[in-house]
Design brief:
mainly alpha, two-stranded antiparallel sheet
Length: 188
């Protein structure tokens, strides 16, 4: 458990974390390389803004590095689950700062030809739906429905019980269904 396959190489991130804790600063790069994509997806979906997601992710990785060096990772959970919690907290902090500080609407990312126009529209619609959810409900939905974490791991990442995750999922899905029904209803 805790081992991840990248191509033909299997990396046990718990062992890598132990190396970082033991003073091997360069080993932290392996953790970042093996977890960056899912952590960035999480940050982008929870925060809803790519630049803010990048900032939150960078902040989370700095926090994780410090925690490893200070011996605050106990190895009871997978490194990935531990990182999901740190990234989620960084994203929720970013959302709190956003709420407390008015800002301009994010600029639309320029078209790079890598993502089809339909996919870009679908992602924009998903972001709009997610943005309407309370941050904790949004985080639970992204962890379980987008990232595919089991409720137990999502609970560990959110620092709550599995029951709380299930409640957040029920609320989030009900809110999304209501918005979709509202959107599809004929306007009189």
């Amino acid at each position: 458990m805790g081992a991840e396959s990248r191509g033909h190489v299997i990396v046990d991130l718990r062992l890598v974390a132990a190396r970082v804790a033991g003073g091997d600063d360069a080993a932290f790069r392996q953790i970042v390389e093996h977890t960056r994509a899912p952590m960035y997806r999480l940050a982008a979906r929870v925060v809803g803004d790519l630049a803010e997601a990048e900032d939150a992710l960078q902040e989370a990785f700095v926090d994780a590095y410090r925690a490893l060096r200070e011996g605050r990772y106990d190895g009871r959970s997978k490194v990935e689950t531990w990182l999901y919690r740190i990234v989620t907290n960084a994203c929720l902090d970013a959302l709190r700062r956003r709420r407390d500080t008015p800002r301009e609407a994010p600029a639309e990312p320029r078209f790079d030809g890598l993502v089809s126009a339909e996919a870009r529209v679908a992602l924009r619609e998903l972001d709009a739906l997610l943005a309407a959810l309370p941050p904790q409900d949004r985080a639970a939905l992204v962890l379980v429905a987008v990232e595919g974490l089991p409720a137990k791991e999502a609970a560990a990442a959110l620092g709550c019980s599995e029951g709380a995750v299930e409640q957040r999922l029920v609320r989030a899905r009900a809110a999304l269904r209501a918005r979709q029904t509202e959107k599809e209803a004929p306007h009189a």
